[in-house]
Amino acid sequence: MRIKHFAVFKNKMETLNWEKLRNDEKEGPYYLPHNKEEYLLKVDTAEPSGLTQIILQEIRRTGLTKIFSLGSGIASQEYQIKKFSNGQVVVTDNNSSVLRLKQFQIFDNALILDAFKDPLPVDESWIVLFPRIDTECDDIQLRKLFEKCHSAGLKYIIFIPAELLSLRIIIAEIKTMVISLIKKKPRVFCGYARSLGAFKKIFGPFYTLAKNSRTDNRVFILEGKEIGYD
């Protein structure tokens, strides 16, 4: 099952524009600061979050040390992985705001990458992180992305769903509609919220759900099916 996901932004945009959100200081959680000091104030933490602890545990279990993030955004999760591990962490996004992260010299690399059109510069020695990018993809796009990772020989994906469909999510969508009406701001289409069953149908031909964990966020640990491995 899936439902449409909407949001209301402070800048009154009518269609989703991530680069605009990254550049707008008023858009709090989406804003990517322009200097390293301000960025660290935004993302730094003394201890790893519960989600980060799960991710680091799974990284250690695989024996791999290289993490490639697709659609990193402000890269707060990637920052924690980098800070609390000795692994390589590469962040990517499909707009130029990611080049700010490159200038900060925190990550091992930061790339402009269209995950659907560009080749993935990774192989079986990497773990791929999907950090809340699922809502922006329709089912066909998301399936093709999993297929692309599988074809590249990627055995492990750490998948953090942005919107796992639940009663809480349905209520949140109703709340967004009400806020849009009260504040007279456009309700911006941001993709889809899906149930676990819907996700399994999408990644199932290529990956198995090895672990389904929940702390502050839900995280799926996916392992590649035997086709192309072993």
Q: What this model shows, in words?
A:
There is one protein chain. This protein is α/β, with parallel strands linked by helices. It has a single domain, classed as Rossmann fold (3-Layer(aba) Sandwich), CATH 3.40.50.150. 35% of the residues lie in helices and 23% in strands. It is built from eight helices and nine strands. The strands form two sheets. The chain has a seven-stranded mixed β-sheet. The protein has a two-stranded antiparallel sheet with strand order 1-7. β5, α6 and β6 form a beta-alpha-beta unit. The radius of gyration is 17 Å and the shape is globular. The two termini are 33 Å apart.
Topology overview:
Elements: E1 2-7, H1 18-23, H2 36-43, H3 50-62, E2 66-69, H4 76-83, E3 88-93, H5 98-104, E4 109-112, E5 126-131, H6 139-151, E6 156-160, H7 167-183, E7 188-194, H8 196-203, E8 207-214, E9 218-224
Parallel strand pairs: 2-3, 2-5, 3-4, 5-6
Antiparallel strand pairs: 1-7, 6-9, 8-9
Helix content: 25-40%
Structural class based on helices, strands and sheet pairing: alpha/beta
Binned strand content:
15-25%
Q: What does the overall shape look like?
A: globular
Gyration radius, in Å: 17 Å
Largest beta sheet, briefly? 7 strands, mixed
User: How many helix segments?
Assistant: 8
Strand order of the largest sheet: 4-3-2-5-6-9-8
Secondary-structure element order, N to C: EHHHEHEHEEHEHEHEE
The low-pLDDT segments are none
First-to-last CA distance: 33 Å
